[in-house]
């Protein structure tokens, strides 16, 4: 929506941790964390499929140290713990009863050649080619577009309620928020849609009442739409859900993971990929840069594209665009970025601390707009540590 000053409606959706695709994303990142806990230089590209009482794991891994810390038995146990934590104890998808097929195998030596040989020379190449777009704006406190931010917020509060109370809610849910924009500025929420899995014994009236309470608690400072513009379980029934109701796959919710469609997307998914895969690491760095540009107050919006080639350490290109009103010298800003930040995979890894087992929490409710932790490196790309450097050098 960069530079759009018209009056319009814009909608974004989020899905819960119990959505079938999100179950798969979390398992992929859980496996990545298991490998990184054993060896910070492990290479992982892990895909997961979930269906009725079945998990299938496939992908490529490489581990040089402490390989005895990663066994199929350990992975199996941790997956079951995660599924139990999400809340699946249903006939069609139960943490104890489901079967797990693990087809992980050694990483291709051709891919490793493009990464590890250059790493030996202290100049690590990208693990794949790709383009990444990333974006920040002043619409919310954490510099995210409002529709996706509010969609996440509703589902986080719904999940919190479900975990803390005996309730009729199931793990699988979706939300959708439509914002009305006036001259490019979000003015009000015009409609909200929430679909949530529930026990068969629950009736529509009590489901609606509790969901509206959760919406009001989620967005206390926002004017909630009238009753006719809040749709709760529009089909009237959502008992069978999760992987039993709809098969899940890693990487199918890339718009939910990012900006809800408010900015371009390069197409690459995140979950299950270590930092050498620039689909993930460079996207995190681009978010860090764009967020700090907006936080520095030299621009109200910032869109960045980075592109990479497999085996090549530095970006092939950098594209940066801000809102026209801010009148930013984008070439000068790119020079500052190039001079102050190492955009190679190893440089990004070191700067954002990406060789740590920090990924599983990123796999639900968005990879961006979260609170960074200086102790663990989790959500380090949300830090504002670069804003002052931009101000000093611009």
Written description of the protein model:
This protein has 394 residues and is α+β, with helices and mostly antiparallel strands. Helix content is 34%, strand content 24%. The protein is built from 11 helices and 13 strands. It has helices at 20-38, 72-86, 109-120, 146-164, 204-218, 242-245, 254-257, 278-295, 330-340, 345-352, 387-393, and strands spanning 8-15, 43-51, 54-62, 89-90, 93-94, 99-106, 130-137, 169-182, 185-198, 230-232, 248-249, 301-308, 317-322. It has a 4-stranded mixed beta sheet. The protein has a 4-stranded mixed beta sheet with strand order 6-3-2-11. Strands 7-12-13 form a 3-stranded antiparallel beta sheet. Strand 9 (185-198), helix 5 and strand 10 (230-232) form a beta-alpha-beta unit. The chain is flat and about 60 Å long. It starts with 7 loop residues before the first strand and ends with a helix. Residues 117-121 have low confidence and may be disordered.
Helix content: 25-40%
Q: What is the H/E order?
A: EHEEHEEEHEHEEHEHEHHEEHHH
Net shape: flat
Secondary-structure-derived class:
alpha+beta
Radius of gyration: 21 Å
Percent strand equals 15-25%
Report the biggest beta sheet as strand number plus sense, adding barrel if it closes: 4 strands, mixed
State the separation between the terminal residues, measured CA to CA.
25 Å
Task: Kindly state the number of beta strands.
Answer: 13
